Amino acid sequence: MTAQQFDRAEVRALEGCTYCPRLCHFVCPAAHGEGAETATGWGMMTLANLIRRGDLTATTDERDALHRCTGCMRCTAVCVHSTPVADVLSHARGLLATSLGVPEAVDAATSELRPVEQPAAAGVVLFFGCGERLDSERRDAVTAFVSRAIGRPVAAIGGLGDDGRAACCGGTARRSAAANTDELESAFARAVESATIVLSTCPRAGAALPSELRHKVRPLLVALGDHADEIATFAAPSPAASPVTLHGGCDSRRPVDLAEAERRFLGALGLHAVDAFAAAGEQECCAAALPYSAVAPAGAARAAAAVVAGASLDARPLVTSSTRCAEHMRAASGDASIRSILELVLDRWPPIR
Ligand code: SF4
Ligand code: SF4
């Protein structure tokens, strides 16, 4: 990893963090999980900068330390300079991977990601990303729900394959410096190209798409929020609107803020969503995402347990955005009642109970 491999904006970001009094450290899930300042955005950016400058020779220890990031972008959200820490660290991990490879646990986790299959025809395509590990039966049920909600036929792609591997648009793989990143990204780009519009369970899907394709990808929950009135007519609530605590999470709140759409959609299901505790207006990250959860599963579990403890103060059922986050939070906290929004659809919509 040499100085020449970073562009001017990245160098500015690395230098800026190195000399910053770590003003973002309180929002970092990895820092909470590890209980260490070295795992903050500041700590990892400083480490990457020392390697870039040639002041430190990276070994697998430093490489592993740079994988303690979920890509949640919470540091960027509170940084007065909006420093793109997650992107710069992702680039640094990619550079180190060429000489040191990636941590074994990250390699194992990302080799479980598969390229998405191609849609059979143009039209509305529902993409189940790697955060929604639904089997084909539950995928079919959600697809039927979405089709009814938007009043158009919908074809599903992605999700868990017969081999148990989850489809990925390439975003998780790129963040993890995985060897299969290019393959996953190009399969997703081909799928988007042949669809009319892609509704994605992951709002970050398509970040790496060429600009002429990016506009075709819409977050599923935004589309469902737009159709809340129609949904309320067939997914009628049980007797009274009941309150839930909504944990937006990192993957699902950035780069687009879904809170309003999620609230409208949950309202159509008869649920009154109240936001979970949020530091500085930013929802906590449960640390389910790669690469952090692969290199430091115990720390990722501690971070999730802390989020659940904070979000449960009001004793309302806890709802989070992705199934991956819900699974991670259930395992870390022992609270089996935590649900993702799509799991709630599967729980509550009569035709698919
Ligand atoms: S992201 Fe911003 S607040 Fe955090 S260390 Fe870097 S410059 Fe400082
Ligand atoms: S992107 Fe999230 S996990 Fe990564 S350094 Fe920033 S706050 Fe921490």
Characterization of the model:
The strands form four sheets. This protein has a four-stranded parallel beta sheet with strand order 3-2-5-6. A four-stranded parallel beta sheet has the order 8-7-11-12, with helices on both faces. Strands 1-4 form a two-stranded parallel ribbon. β2 (124-128), α8 and β3 form a beta-alpha-beta unit. The mean pLDDT is 90. The chain folds into three domains: 3-101, no CATH class; 113-223, no CATH class; 235-352, Rossmann fold (3-Layer(aba) Sandwich), CATH 3.40.50. It has 18 helices and twelve strands. The chain has helices spanning 8-18, 29-34, 41-53, 60-65, 74-78, 85-100, 104-110, 136-150, 171-175, 181-194, 211-214, 220-226, 228-234, 259-268, 292-295, 297-311, 323-333, 341-348; strands at residues 113-114, 124-128, 154-158, 166-167, 197-200, 217-219, 242-247, 271-275, 278-279, 282-283, 318-320, 339-340. The structure holds iron/sulfur cluster (2 copies). One iron/sulfur cluster (SF4) is lined by residues 27-30, 41, 44, 69-75, 85-86.
Q: Given this structure, which CATH class of the largest domain is correct?
A: Alpha Beta
Largest beta-sheet characterization: 4 strands, parallel
For the record, the CATH architecture of the largest domain stands as 3-Layer(aba) Sandwich
What's the order of the H and E elements?
HHHHHHHEEHEEHHEHEHHEHEEEHHEHEH
What portion of the residues fall into strands of 2 or more residues? Answer: 5-15%
Q: How confident overall, as mean pLDDT? A: 90
Helix segment tally: 18
> In total, how many beta strands?
12
Shape type: globular
Global structural class: alpha/beta
**CATH fold label of the largest domain:** Rossmann fold
